[in-house]
Amino acid sequence: GMAWHRGDLETARKVYGRAWRRALKYKLRKLGAAARHNLLGVDSELGAFEAAQEHASAAYKLYGRDYQKLPYLAHDIAYMWCLQGFYEPASEVLSRIIGHIDAPKEQLKLLANLARAAAGAGKKEMFLEAWDEAMSLTHRPSENLAEALYNLAEGSFMAGWNHRATEIAARAGEIGESLGEDSTAARAHDLLARIRAGHPPPTPPRDVPDSVRMLGARLKRDLDRRAAGR
Q1: 166 CB contacts (<8 Å, ≥6 apart)?
Q2: Which residue from 139, 141, 143, 135 is spatially nearest to 114, judged by alpha carbons?
Q3: Which pTM was predicted?
Q4: Which of 230, 224, 228, 229 is nearest to 71 (CA)?
């Protein structure tokens, strides 16, 4: 976790991999699930999406559908799908997490990702609602602020709101730099350059593979059950 926080993703990946192998050897189910969950996040950031999808499926099975923090796992899986352009299943899963996550900083992250996914999926009403709610939370300090603003900027860009996308991307870059979040700042500056140059959004929508549809269906079912109190 410390290596990941420092941005040393390769070290984090190696150590989480060791944790997973130890958990598997000694049948430590919860620790194994946590290791695969974290590997999902690391490999998503590294762009190793095939491995990340395998970690997602494994973490879901190990945690079980009654896992207390299933909404957080579902969020991280949907975010991975956004990075690949699978916006339809991502938006469907993210929209079901609303109400399950209460912490303001996590709500901001969730709403920003939902706005991005909805824009990519062409769901204008969902995008506008998530965008408004997320923007109302961006005026308070948060460790997720720069990342959330980047996702709002990309969503705005995909929705055709280039002027707002430019403003938000610039703000994301400034905040990222001030907080030492070099990766987020770099992505924000790259997005800003793409908007100004008239290039298309970085991650266009893509056809959704069956493996993603199947996992998405299971996550939606479990989140719906939870919402209904069953």
Answers
A1: 153, 192, 195, 196
A2: 135
A3: 0.93
A4: 224
